[in-house]
Design a protein that fits this description.
2 domains, 9% strand, alpha+beta, 274 residues, binds zinc ion
Length: 274
């Protein structure tokens, strides 16, 4: 069991500062423009897990909001002075070794967790990370409303998979954005039921990713998008095994000459069937 944070939780402080006439004397915390999902999708797994550990064991102390920043004293082997922006949790500072080098550290992420959770406990689902596309193995079709929601979510995630046009200074930010987009897409597709209809959506997604790389100017030299494409292909192979009707959805992959060869296992399945 995780220990509770030692200092009063945010909402306890908020209640204490809420006078009887219903108007707060001071605004304690400004709302962050990010939420827990943003932190989960945009932070690497190891840093996120360490940050959760710090947050849950009450190591984030003396949290205050100053202007557009939260500040705190995060306890570890030493105590670190940490700050993160209310607009972007990657903008901030920490007195630890990584923070001094302007690298996002577990202390900054722990403070960001405190800010979005307002000191409240994280549930198991909150802590769950799905940075890999997995098959739900559920079989059912989606309603019209669900389809609309899914398409919107995919379109929003695709916006993070941006072309790279800048200087070397912005290259890391661009790669972070690719990673966040792919993490978001992994989470979306891992929730998909197995059906022909969903297989069509996955094939379309695969083709869109291919276009992003071939003509969209996305620099995938770290293999982030390619990694997701490989996971999508494996997912579609699972679909074909669970429901052979899904194999029909692979047809568009045979019509074009693809440069990446991602589609090969799926084309083979289609060939073997006919
Ligand atoms: Zn740090």
């Amino acid at each position: 069991m995780a220990k509770k944070p030692k200092q009063p939780k945010f909402y306890e402080r908020a209640i204490k500062n809420w006078p009887e006439d219903g108007r707060p004397r001071e605004k304690l915390f400004m709302h962050t423009t990010y939420d827990l999902n943003k932190i989960k999708f945009a932070t690497d797994e190891a840093t996120f897990k360490r940050a959760v550990g710090l947050y849950e064991s009450g190591k984030v102390t003396e949290v205050e909001q100053l202007g557009g920043y939260y500040s705190a004293l995060v306890l570890g082997t030493k105590s670190y002075r940490v700050s993160v922006s209310v607009r972007n949790y990657k903008h901030g500072h920490c007195t630890c070794y990584l923070g001094e080098k302007d690298t996002l550290c577990k202390h900054m992420v722990a403070l960001a967790l405190y800010a979005v959770m307002e000191g409240k406990p994280l549930s198991d689902k909150d802590k769950q990370l799905s940075h890999h596309a997995e098959c739900s193995e559920r079989r059912n079709t989606l309603s019209k409303e669900e389809l609309v929601t899914i398409k919107r979510a995919i379109a929003e995630s695709m916006r993070y998979i941006k072309p790279y046009r800048g200087s070397s200074r912005t290259w890391f930010a661009n790669q972070d954005s690719l990673r966040e987009g792919c993490n978001r897409l992994s989470a979306i597709v891992s929730d998909f039921p197995v059906s022909r209809q969903v297989a069509d959506i996955l094939v379309k997604l695969l083709l869109r990713l291919e276009r992003k790389l071939s003509v969209g100017g996305v620099d995938d030299s770290n293999g982030i998008v390619g990694g997701l494409a490989g996971e999508l292909v494996a997912l579609l192979e699972e679909f074909a095994r669970i429901d052979p009707l899904c194999i029909d959805a692979f047809e568009p992959l045979c019509r074009k000459e693809y440069c990446f060869g991602w589609e090969e296992p799926l084309v083979r399945i289609l060939d073997e069937r006919s």
